[in-house]
Amino acid sequence: MDLRSRQSKGKRISPVEVGMCVGGIAGYFVGQLTGAETICTVSGFLLGLFLGVWITLRRNPGEERPH
Question: What is the CA radius of gyration of the chain?
């Protein structure tokens, strides 16, 4: 998926997508340091997912977002 073509259509990258990517990458590096790569990567991914959803809901209270 090309980010430029996606942005040209007027769609912005959502906080959920950013949170999942950043959380997964950060969790992977924490896992490399601690020796528990899988659980840290999954935990970081899920934490990023929940933070992204929370930010999205806080930013648009009561507003339905089209998918």
Answer: 14
- Taking the complete model, does pTM exceed 0.85, yes or no? no
Alpha-carbon dihedral 24, 52, 17, 62, rounded to 10 degrees: 160
Q: How far apart are CA 32 and CA 35, in angstroms?
A: 5
Q: What is the pLDDT of residues 40-66, one digit of tens each?
A: 888 888 888 888 888 888 876 665 556
| Structure letter (DSSP) for residue 19 | H
Rounded CA separation 46/24 (Å): 8
**C-alpha atoms less than 13 angstroms from C-alpha of 55 in its C-beta half-sphere:** 13
